[in-house]
From TrEMBL:
Protein known as: Uncharacterized protein
Protein origin, superkingdom: Eukaryota
Amino acid sequence: MKLHGADCDKINIESWLTADKRFPGLEIKPVDSNLKLRSDIEEWIEELNNDNPGAAFIYMQGHGLPEYMGSYVTGDSFAAGQGPTVIRSEEWINMFSKFDRRAQFITITDFCHSGNFFRLQYKLEPKQDGEGAQWIETEEWAQGYGAGSIRLSSPMLHLAGSARNENVFETGRTGGYFTHVLSETGIKTLPELLKRLRAGVDKHLEKARCYDKNPIPANVTQTPQVCSFPTPLKFLSLTNPLEDPDVLTKIYTGQ
């Protein structure tokens, strides 16, 4: 399953991570595009756990399916008439639950149906008056999907390219719309980051609706999400993390 924007995504996410040295001491370990078999991914997560990074960014792009409350498609071959091999969201959660409780993650996903892929407790939503945003409990958590064996033990902030019922879009020239907008946005307060991500992706969609060849349907949406477990207020010593423009750096450094 070809990814037309994969090369651009790599450039864009590395640009965002390294600009202005906003994440001091960050070591980037690209995963070989050929190593996307299910067994390779499981081995890579295990190696990351053994490295005991303390804090880590995880960037995931590729293909996703809506089945099983979200699934990530691996590069395993499959026979005609059979569906692709996937790693279900609950399987990813189980892999991440093996990390030390003191580990902290900022996870960025640019694949279809990845909204709250890790079934985190809170979602950041703009207020109705348009001024700022607030944390609300997610539907997945309220329905009990965050309990038992499929619950993360480590804090995580998740930036997702779309809601769980939406696709993400890309071009070979820009890469994934979400990753491209993120690379140009920098780091802001979380409400401002969410606002700019959604506005930037909307601009990409507006252009894509006007393409002469293969325009996207007018009713298609892609709505970036910010989810967290627990809220940054609970795992950072900040008075109001929603007003802190350096909150991502502080999550990474553990301040």
